[in-house]
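Could you help me review a protein record that somebody else here produced? Here is the record exactly as it was handed to me:
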Amino acid sequence: MFSSIRNFLHRHKRKFIITGAVFGGLYILSSYAQRKLREWQEKEAKKFFEMTRKKQHFESTERTCNQTILSLSKIVSESILGLLNTEEIVQKLQENPENKLALWEQLKLMIFTRICVLVYALSILQVTLRVQLNIVGGYLYRDSVNDDDPLIDSDLQARYLSLCHHFVGQGVEDLVKQIEKAVKRVVEPVSLKKKITLQEVEQLFWSIQTILCTDTIDGDPVKKMVHYLVGHTEINEARLDTMVKETMDILESDEVTSIAMSSVSRSFSSVIDEIANLFVNKSPPTTKNHLEIDEHVITNGALKLGATPDGFVDVNKVELHFVKLIPVVNELITKNTCKGNTNIPDLLTQQLILNEKLKLLGANIYEVFSSSS
């Protein structure tokens, strides 16, 4: 029996060898495939974990960014309203002074300056802060995943972010001076007695924006974001200098300039939408305490405007005496008379925070600085 088995194995030796080699190869291949599969699964799991961690960190950066913007926007708005204080003029007008014509002219210029400064200042602040905070966020994420020396410590972070505080103070004052000149060129020639349409009001804002965009002396405010950020200080520390130069490159890029200009234009459109409501809700004066300007009679009712119209009103065909429009536009800036019980500064801030282009800009900057080697 053993002899027959031996003969059988001898006769089929070649087959057994080939079969063994095949099964051995399959086993080795299977083991290799399983090992590679485990490595791939571990790699994907690690990648997913890193993506989740990065997403959470970015969302935290985004929340911090929004909170900082809200806080500083309020400070900037209050600074602008303080520098351009219309309440004192309105109070004097209510006392029926002898120089009421000069006061109305001053109020006219100041209100348009207020709105334009708010639009430009909040847009510049929004763009600058998003760039800065996402650069910091990117560096902090890289520090969290690397064991090397930190790229940015708390002291460097504080000094870098403090750069924007110059804009909140001196920067806003410089912006007010520049915009005042443009507003004076456009608005001063418009008579207080003139009946004005919404389209003409819109044209006033676009004319001011055009003058600022083509300003060859002071420069376009949007293209001066770098000046507002770092044009006032000397940078002596190497790492801070690197971060500032990176920030300058971004702020001076065509993409960021385009986004900032788009934000300014959209903000002006929102202002026009709010003013359009005033044309729809126009009403005649309600008091008899007259303020005379030449042959035209202005009443203190010009300080209060807002009766509900009867039926449909084509806002493009409505005309208002310019003098009646001025004080109610001022109320939009300082009181809760806009849609949603918000004033224009708050409205512009919320709109800019929700701006998808600005959000995408921040995300792209974070991705670049969190992934750099």
